[in-house]
Amino acid sequence: MISFEERVKGVLISTALGDALGAPIEKLSREEIEEKYGYVTSLKTLWYKEALGEDATLGKRRGNGIITDDTLMTLALCRVYKTEKRHLDAYDLANEFTKEIAFRKTFIPEFNRKAPILDRLFYPEKHIFLRHVLANCEPRQGGIGNMVNCGAAMYIAPIGIVNAGNPLAAYNEAIAFASGHQVSYGLEAAGVLAACVACAFTPNATVENVVETAITVAKDGTKQAIIALTTKAEELKKRKCSYHELVKSFHDSIAPFSPMGDDVHRKIEKVGIPSNHYTPSRLFSIEELPLALAFIVYNDGEYYKSILDGVNSGRDTDSIGVMVGVILGAMYGTKFIEEEDIDLLSRTNQINFDNEATSFGEVAKQIIKKDLQIIRKQEGIIGH
C-alpha cells in the first residue's frame, strides 16, 4: 500500500521531473528534437538556446535539472493551502496566490537568484497580476480576456491532492479557483487534470480509471480530444508502432482540436493576421492534457517511458511532462523515481521535497478529514 505522504511526494517530484526534462527542448518540434538530440533521456540535457549562444542575452539557464514556472507555481499553490488550510476558490487566487507569485520572492533556478515568480512568467500567467492587482476585477472574472492556454492546468495538481479520491470535487474546485486565471478550454483542462490526480490517489487506481474519470468530467472539445487521443493510443498499442508513427498519429488526432501544430512561435509577420490560436472555443482543447493521457495509455502507465515519450513529442514539452508526471506520481508515489534524479532536482532548484511534501501533505489530510466529518454528520442527519 502506497501511503498518502508518498503519493504527495510523488506528485511534487514528478512535477519537477517532467518540467526539468522538457524545459531544455520546449517549443522545438518532434523533428527538431530528433535532429538535435535524438531522444532525450537525461535531466542534464543542454538547452538548445544555450547551444546557439543565446543564453547570455536571455539571462536565463535551463538544463541540469532546472525547473520552470510549472513547478514554481505548483509549489506556490501548495503554500496557499498551507496558509488558508481549507478549500480554495477564485477569491483565493486573487488574494493569497497573487501575493505568492507577484510579491513574495523565491529562488528562481533559471535566474539563479531570488525574485518574484511573476518576473519569470509567460504573458497569460502575468494576466493574473494585470487582472487582480491592476484592474481589481471581480475574482471570478479574472480569466476573461486571457490567451487560452495550459497555464492553469500546469500547476493545478495540488487541488487534486486536497480532493484525493473525489474527482468531481477536485474538478469543481479547480474550475472555481482557476476561473480567476483562465477561460474556455484552458479552464476546462485545469478541472479535468485535477480530477485525474484525485482519481489517481485512489488505492489501486488504474490508467483506465483515470481516463474514464477524465472523459466523465470533461466538457466540449476537451472531452472529444481526450476520447480521440486515448482511443488512438489503445489502437496503436495493439501493434506497438514506431515512436515516429506514434507522435505523428497523436498530432494528427489532436489537430482538429488544437490548430497551432508546430507553429507555436509569435513572430512579427503574424501580427494582425487572424487565427484561432489561443482563442476561446467550445470545440477546441489544449493539446498537452490529451497528449499526456495518450502517452500514459500507450505505455500502460510505465513511469519514465510515459514521461519521456511525452517530453520528446515536441512543442510544449515541459507541460506535457508535468501532466504525465503528476498523474503517475499520484498513482505510484516515488516508487519508480530514480534517486539520482531526485538528488539533482533538489540541489539544482534548492527544493527540499521531503519538507514540501510533509508540510503540504499534513494540510491536505486535515482538509480531507474535515470533509469526511461533514459527510458523516450529513449521513447521520439523513439516517434520522
Automatic annotation (TrEMBL):
Mg(2+) binds at T68, D69, D70, D316, D318, S319. GO terms for molecular function: hydrolase activity; metal ion binding. Gene3D superfamilies: ADP-ribosylation/Crystallin J1. Keywords: Hydrolase, Magnesium, Metal-binding. Pfam families: ADP_ribosyl_GH (PF03747). SUPFAM superfamilies: ADP-ribosylglycohydrolase. Binds 2 magnesium ions per subunit. Its cofactor is Mg(2+). This is ADP-ribosylglycohydrolase. It comes from Ureibacillus chungkukjangi.
